[in-house]
Design brief:
alpha/beta; Rossmann fold; 20% strand; binds S-adenosylmethionine
């Protein structure tokens, strides 16, 4: 019995990943290629247990229409797409053709490219092009941290009642309680905004760098 999440050593993390839903060969290759091609950015990928959780959650919620803000080389989008049923759709938003060029290849290899649409451009602008209706079942926010309040403002009114928004990096490596830069301060303020938002019920989970799940009323 413990009243808080236990710290994960590298060994314990490897155990958790191996006994949870370990990444398959395609996801392992994607992680390896990302590290080789983009060594300075590879840490932006979601953790393997988060990828497994995103697939699980997408299936659990019966998601048919999902959005991702911040696609990078495609690990989280691949995980979400794999959880979609036949006919399900994932719309991805990113600013980088270079990063998402890698994503496109892995979506094709995994056979999910036909259910993913990629929109390139600043998500603050491109999200506004989505229908102004409550049509989204699931959204994952994992882009530039100062943009989170904008993405939240665009997404919440578009979620169907009971739809869920997942938000990554809400702990900022622990720095949310003593912010050291603009991104830390943005996330600390964003977390306060979510807590005060009467349109949602939210929980903050200590998965990887912290993941908030918000259910929209
Ligand atoms: C943390 S990474 C996303 C990681 C991804 N979820 C994964 O699991 O691989 C953040 C991404 O946000 C994108 N990004 C940064 N600023 C953006 C903006 N204004 N609009 C859309 N995407 C943006 C970057 O190009 C980068 O690919």
């Amino acid at each position: 019995m413990t009243t808080k999440s236990i710290p994960l050593t590298s060994e314990l993390h490897a155990y958790l990943v191996s006994r949870g839903a370990p990444p398959d060969e395609i996801m392992r290759d994607l992680a390896e290629e990302t590290l080789a091609a983009l060594p300075n950015d590879a840490q932006m990928q979601v953790a393997p247990e988060q990828a497994a959780f995103l697939t699980f959650l997408t299936r659990l919620l019966g998601v048919r229409h999902a959005v991702e803000v911040g696609t990078f080389t495609g690990l989280s989008s691949l995980a979400i797409a794999r959880g979609l049923p036949e006919g399900g759709r994932l719309t991805c938003f990113d600013i980088s053709e270079e990063f998402t060029g890698i994503a496109r290849r892995y979506w094709a290899r995994a056979g999910v490219d036909d259910r993913i649409e990629l929109r390139i451009g600043p998500a603050g602008d491109t999200l506004r092009e989505l229908p102004h209706e409550r049509h989204l079942d699931f959204a994952f926010i994992d882009a530039d941290k100062t943009g989170y309040p904008i993405y939240w403002a665009e997404l919440v009114p578009r979620m169907r009642p009971g739809g869920v928004i997942a938000v990554d990096n809400v702990l900022r490596g622990g720095r949310v309680i003593a912010p050291q830069n603009a991104d830390d301060r943005a996330i600390a303020a964003f977390n306060d905004e979510v807590l005060a938002d009467v349109r949602v019920d939210a929980v903050m989970l200590p998965i990887a760098d912290g993941l908030t799940l918000a259910r929209v009323h």
